[in-house]
Specification:
alpha/beta; Rossmann fold; 2 domains; 5-stranded parallel sheet; 36% helix; 19% strand
Length: 264
């Protein structure tokens, strides 16, 4: 029996290395795959789209906020992987009645690297975890050298329409915006607040409006709506996965950020 702590400092007791994993977080499912743990994954959510073939070979147990507990129980998992932000907290007690539950809590790059380290130890794949971390650290160092002399750009990052919602302070998205030298005009707010679209006009120094590809699928007509209230700012569609997914997705993220800045 060994005891470990998750990122909420909850103690988890395991008799051996988990061999049957249910992942309820898309970015963590991708991380498991990149750690070489595809065979150990038995259950995922309908939003676990990377790699896409997993949806054909693994049991779909629901979404990130609502799951089929009976289906999860039938999979006889050794461990269930969750995230503080993406999963509903009221699910945890019922999940814990099925198996041990590990909860991640990601705010910074260091938090993500710590999670990769933890999975390396938890699933006995330390060498591959170290390789992923080395790649992320190397790419991040290169990006820091690239971005350090770039001008600060004032941005708004929209994640939803009807109601209009933005990523604000105390989010991983806002943290990555800061790394990009993007100054979030809604950083005075918390988490994912609803905003009135016409308030964009109050931000006279707004340079850039970023429309995320997820969770809302923004289209050209939505950019037109933005431009009507903020004609002096530029509207750009961005891949939301690179701004919100952590884990092994970060191996590719910093090149994406360089390409984004180059086309502004």
């Amino acid at each position: 029996m060994k005891s470990i702590q998750d990122q909420l400092h909850r103690t988890i007791h395991l008799a051996s290395t988990p061999q049957r994993i249910v992942s309820l977080v898309p970015s963590q499912t991708e991380l498991l795959y990149d750690l070489g743990l595809e065979q150990q994954i038995v259950g995922i959510t309908k939003f676990c789209v990377h790699p896409i073939h997993l949806k054909q070979s693994k049991s779909i147990v629901g979404g990130t906020k609502h799951v089929n507990f009976d289906k999860i129980k039938a999979l006889n998992p050794d461990i269930i992987l969750c995230n503080k932000e993406e999963n509903a907290i009221n699910m945890i007690p019922e999940l814990e009645a099925i198996a041990q539950v590990h909860i991640s809590d990601i705010h910074t790059l260091d938090d993500s690297l710590d999670l990769i380290t933890a999975y390396g130890a938890l699933f006995n794949c330390k060498q591959r975890a170290d390789e992923i971390k080395d790649t992320i650290n190397s790419n991040f160092k290169d990006f820091q050298n690239y971005i350090k002399n770039k001008p600060i750009v004032r941005v708004a990052y929209f994640i939803w329409r009807n109601p209009w919602m933005v990523a604000a302070n105390n989010t991983f998205i806002n943290y990555l915006l800061t790394l990009n030298r993007f100054e979030n005009v809604y950083a005075n707010l918390q988490r994912y607040p609803e905003v009135k679209l016409d308030t964009l006009a109050l931000h006279s120094e707004l340079d850039l409006v970023l429309l995320s590809s997820e969770p809302f699928p923004f289209k050209a007509e939505h950019a037109v709506e933005i431009n009507e209230v903020s004609p002096s700012s530029k509207t750009v569609f961005v891949d939301g996965e690179y701004f919100s997914w952590y884990g092994s997705r970060l191996m590719k993220a910093f090149q994406y950020f360089k390409n984004l800045r180059n086309r502004l």
